[in-house]
Amino acid sequence: xxxxxxxxxxxxxxxxxxxxxxxxxxxxxxxxxxxxxxxxxxxxxxxxxxxxxxxxxxxxxxxxxxxxxxxxxxxxxxxxxxxxxxxxxxxxxxxxxxxxxxxxxxxxxxxxxxxxxxxxxxxxxxxxxxxxxxxxxxxxxxxxxxxxxxxxxxxxxxxxxxxxxxxxxxxxxxxxxxxxxxxxx
Amino acid sequence: xxxxxxxxxxxxxxxxxxxxxxxxxxxxxxxxxxxxxxxxxxxxxxxxxxxxxxxxxxxxxxxxxxxxxxxxxxxxxxxxxxxxxxxxxxxxxxxxxxxxxxxxxxxxxxxxxxxxxxxxxxxxxxxxxxxxxxxxxxxxxxxxxxxxxxxxxxxxxxxxxxxxxxxxxxxxxxxxxxxxxxxxxxxxxxxxxxxxxxxxxxxxxxxxxxxxxxxxxxxxxxxxxxxxxxxxxxxxxxxxxxxxxxxxxxxxxxxxxxxxxxxxxxxxxxxxxxxxxxxxxxxxxxxxxxxxxxxxxxxxxxxxxxxxxxxxxxxxxxxxxxxxxxxxxxxxxxxxxxxxxxxxxxxxxxxxxxxxxxxxxxxxxxxxxxxxxxxxxxxxxxxxxxxxxxxxxxxxxxxxxxxxxxxxxxxxxxxxxxxxxxxxxxxxxxxxxxxxxxxxxxxxxxxxxxxxxxxxxxxxxxxxxxxxxxxxxxxxxxxxxxxxxxxxxxxxxxxxxxxxxxxxxxxxxxxxxxxxxxxxxxxxxxxxxxxxxxxxxxxxxxxxxxxxxxxxxxxxxxxxxxxxxxxxxxxxxxxxxxxxxxxxxxxxxxxxxxxxxxxxxxxxxxxxxxxxxxxxxxxxxxxxxxxxxxxxxxxxxxxxxxxxxxxxxxxxxxxxxxxxxxxxxxxxxxxxxxxxxxxxxxxxxxxxxxxxxxxxxxxxxxxxxxxxxxxxxxxxxxxxxxxxxxxxxxxxxxxxxxxxxxxxxxxxxxxxxxxxxxxxxxxxxxxxxxxxxxxxxxxxxxxxxxxxxxxxxxxxxxxxxx
Lengths: 185, 802
Fold this sequence. Notes:
The complex is a heterodimer of chains A (185) and B (802).
Chain A: H1 2-10, H2 24-38, E1 39-40, E2 51-56, H3 59-71, E3 79-84, E4 95-98, H4 106-113, E5 119-122, H5 127-130, E6 134-139, E7 142-148, H6 149-155, E8 158-159, H7 161-166, E9 169-171, H8 177-184
Parallel strand pairs in A: 2-3, 2-4, 4-5, 5-6, 7-9
Antiparallel strand pairs in A: 1-8, 6-7
Helix pairs in contact in A: 2-3
Chain B: H1 2-5, H2 19-74, H3 78-86, E1 94-101, E2 106-111, E3 130-132, E4 135-144, E5 147-157, H4 160-210, H5 223-287, E6 291-296, E7 301-304, H6 306-312, H7 316-319, H8 330-346, E8 350-357, E9 363-374, E10 380-389, H9 391-433, H10 439-470, E11 479-482, H11 483-500, E12 504-508, E13 515-518, H12 520-536, E14 543-550, E15 554-561, H13 595-605, E16 609-614, E17 621-628, E18 632-633, E19 654-658, H14 662-674, E20 678-682, H15 685-695, E21 699-703, H16 711-720, E22 728-733, H17 738-747, E23 751-754, H18 759-776, H19 779-794
Parallel strand pairs in B: 12-14, 19-20, 19-21, 21-22, 22-23
Antiparallel strand pairs in B: 1-2, 1-5, 3-4, 4-5, 6-7, 6-10, 8-9, 9-10, 11-13, 13-18, 14-15, 15-17, 16-17
């Protein structure tokens, strides 16, 4: 009950209706968009080129993301959300979301990406072990996430410490505070 | 300084009014104002700075927090948010911090122990600092990627009063220190400036209070004051010599003034005494009703009092010398002037009666009386005298003489009138004393006596009645009464006289009788007087007409006869007292000439009037009584109690007759005995009580004036006995005044009758009383007793005759 209320509050800013309960999927979609603020890509993004998001194996997520993007205010960088069926289609995307349905072949999929400058977000039980950079978890009925610094470095992406401060787990991090954070749990 | 110290009574060196005090005050005030101004400015600046720096600090803090909070809010990490806020515990100024989501819900908070927690919802979305309830609040938005995620709000203590208080404490300390320094400085300044002034003032005060002009002010180091002091001292020296001279002059002047004052006072006392005595004489002259006058040695008038001048209507100037003689009556002038000149020549007293013309134009008889005045050497200096207006005395004298003459006449008439009936009575009595008188003759003799006694009683009643009316002692007791019954009562009373002269009496009454509200006794008395008059002044065998009419707004009784009439000249005065028309013609009918006056008086008391009309001598006359219609009432009952039923054959009772006049007692007892009552007689009050004790009479007839005890006393004693408290008590006296009647009733009498009491009336009363006593144990009679007391008492003659 408390968790549902917290979710609701957290996303109140995006909805005119306070008190509306958001589903797990909706929260995940919002998180995906927000991750972009805390990750830096090596090549500077121009304001006009659209930021591309590719979604694999979760068409519902695609439509949710699109809805969120449309509701965003004017003056922000345009975002392009695409539903792909093979990784080949994700060539020029900056962010790749792989749905839970593709958990089975996740390690292979991620391996095939190599060191491409792409932020991978997954929703699988051992997402980080499979090689993704950010992986969704549900703890105490709340959507949380974990971050793999190792994978991020491999992809050449910079992750903001602020993001790490709110992550449930950070893998391969050099500094201590977040480990301490982990210990506190 | 020493000079100043000596005169603390006059002025206090430290007080605000002294020079020293003022100097100190100026120094202190200047210091205080400077310090206060400075403090105010500093405090203002400090407070502004305090507020600004606190606002800036808070704002910075809020900005940093907003930045570090963004991810926690972004990714809904409440723990992280709480952790961040908790770090604020290091900042003691911050009371509370709150993180609100974009829609204003509280997401995380931090509250310093003891501080007020932030509200659950963010109401005002402002980012600027604001002050509320001694706290400062700063809000900051959390923005990430162009998206407002929420608001952070910090609340810090803004301790304005603590701040100001600390400031004021410091200020107070500085003030006290400054004042002390200022006072020390002022004291030093004062010593150099005010000491010479104080010394000067002290010397001046000393001179004023002690008058010691030899004192001098001490020298001083200050140039300006040295000059002043020198000048002051020289002035003192000069004034010292001047004062001495002035004091001498003053002493001599004071002496002169004292002398003058004493003389003035003496003169005033003398003047006032003179004025008082003059006023006294004047007051005496004015207060007495006489004119007071003074003449000089040669007989010339020099003073006439205001009362005299007012009487004569002249001024003092007109009266002076011999001016007053011009006001004398022409017939008196010569003799009076001659008498006065003779008096002046001989220097004797003057006494003269003469007439002066007054302001009213009439001549007033005046008695002038003067005595010569001599001075200490015995020389004649003049006359002083009075003029007494004796007009009123003269008038009274004449009136008295007139009244005396009328009284004499009246007494003569009265004696004649009383003597008149006596002759027939004496004859009749002698007749009755003769033997061999037959029944008819003796009856006739008795009738004569009875008639003549009735006449005398009537005469005396009229006399008393008139006297009551003129003295205002007669009171009317109006009651509704049948007009017809009034006529009948009057006729009853006068019938014997009318029949004795063989007149023919006709009576005209309206078809329907009616009531009028009058005193029935008085009206029938007036009517019977008119009837008596008509009978008297009509030759035997004449006609008399008595009419009763109801006018439009009055009731009219008229009596017309065919008698000797009234001369026209006599008509206007016919209703006056003692006026009798041509009394010589019919002296035998007599009369005191008061009958008509009585009628007029009685009718006037009823608001009515009476007038007489006659066509001349021997042509008869008509007397008309009019009584206002307001007293008329429709007759409500049928035939009323016109005349009480006479108890011809009533019950017999036991009667005690008490009178010191044995004849009176015996004769009345005989009459009552003849009527069938058992009678007893007593000639003294004491005896009456004895007989009463023994015989228990039903009725006692008591005389009032008895030698051994008054009837009042006897009545009271009878009423106190067991046998006498409820018997019938009748008073029979010669005293018929209202007061006498009241006194009798008070003493316990039931009825009061004036002598001579009509035996028949006494008999009637007895009969009624005994009858009611038989029937109801005297209760019914009680009402009659109360209701008719006065009537029976005053007018026993009402039932006489017929």
